[in-house]
Structure formats: structure tokens, C-alpha cells
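Could you please consider the sequence and fold following this short note?
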Amino acid sequence: MITRNEMIRLSYFHPKRAFTLIESKPNEEVYEIRVLLKNVQGAVAKVAQVLANAHVDIRTSVLFDAVEHEGKGYWTAFIEVSKASKGVKQLEKELKRLDVVSEVKIEKPAPVLYDAMHFPILHGNSRAIVMPIELFSSLWEEIENILTPSGFEAVFYNAGKKSGKYIAEVLSKKVSAEIETLATMLAQATKAIGWGVIVSRKINPKRCFAKVEMKGCFEAVLKKNANRKACHWTRGFFAGYMSQLFDKPVEAIETKCIAAGDKVCRFEIKKKI
């Protein structure tokens, strides 16, 4: 679990919470609301106004296209109603009367405030999962206990390499296959999905060389205070990704690692000899 001090330290990156779970205080009364809206300007504002007029506190919300309803979208929120001037049933009736609203559902998640309105989770058009880093850590620790240290490094390096090559192939079909474009997309993707933040990169296609520096690398966080370099899957991923960009086999080494006490994780990618 990320402590408050760690959250403050990471605040440079502006942390965001996945819309899967929220915390509440004992005296709060939190519900989840899902509204199917027509794709017109001001639709969300009309819904928010109804809630504001009833003194409902919108704790957090998301808005996205409704895959199964063309031309419509879902606005889903966790709302706190302990000080509301109207009951949940009355709010539902008022919202349904709005000309921009097609459907309304309000329910109280229990015993924990997990999102109960949506499944599956999508990343673009691909199905995704949200796995807390503690769960990921226990999985990797068990695998490491089964394998020798060198075996663990080799398995995860090669797994990362295959993943990196695959992702590069997928992204190159979406946009220009130019090296700089794909390198920028990699920086965007790693930050957006929580792997880490690439703060520096140097790429020399002629030499098949690259140097990447990353902060907040999830793999280093898993092994914090290990006093050794630990990002084997990540360096494998960079090797696989860059081999696809350079169209030549390359290998990656980690020269600095947060898990070893460094401020960044640094990876150097070189042509395979």
C-alpha cells in the first residue's frame, strides 16, 4: 500500500486513482450512480446541476462512450448524500425527466465501495485488469522463490522482451512507424498505465543505441530497498521494443536502479553482439 509520505513524494507526477474503489468515513452515506447520456453539449452539466441543487457531494466521476449504445455515453460517479435535501429515489426520478438522460441507476455498494456498475474494464478496445501492486509483488516473490536468482532474471527479461516487441508492433500499426514517434508513444503509454515515467531518453538509430531514464518504475517499487538492480522485466521490455524500432536485435542492461538506492532507473540498449 502506498503511504502518505510516498504519495507526497510522487505528487510531482500528479497521481490519479483508478475508478474502482473509494474510501469513505463512518458518517458518510455513499452511493454509486450511472447515467446513460445522449451525446449532446451540456448533458453532464444538466445532471450535475440536479445533484448540486439537492446538496449532493460528487466525490469522483468518469465519463466515457457507451460501447453498447451508439451515440451515447456513461457518466458514472460516487456521490455522498448524507446532507442531501432529497432522497435517492427522488433524485433518480428528477434525473430521468431530463431530456439528455436515457437511463439512470443508483445503488449503494456494500460492504466495500467498489465500482459495481461496469464490467469489463477496457484499455482502448482491449480488455484490461487492475492489479494492486501488492498483489503483483506477492506473485513475483513466489516465482522468485521457485526459480534461482539467475533463472528469475532470465525468465522475466525474456518475457519482457517478447512483450516489448509485441507492443511496438501494435503501436506501429496505429501511427507512423518512425522511430521518434514510436519512442514518444512509449513514454506516453508507460506513464498512462502506471509502469513509470520516462524522464529522459537518447536514441541513436544508426548505432542501434538508446539510453532511457525512468522514475517511479513499478518493478523497482516492488523491490524497494533490495540494494540491487531489479528491473529485469522492464529492461527486457525496452530491449524488445527497441529491437522492433531498429529492426535489429538488441540487448538491454540496467546501469542504475531505484531499488539499489539510485534516484532513477537507467537502461542502456545496445546492438546485440
Notes: The chain has two domains: 19-128, 133-271.
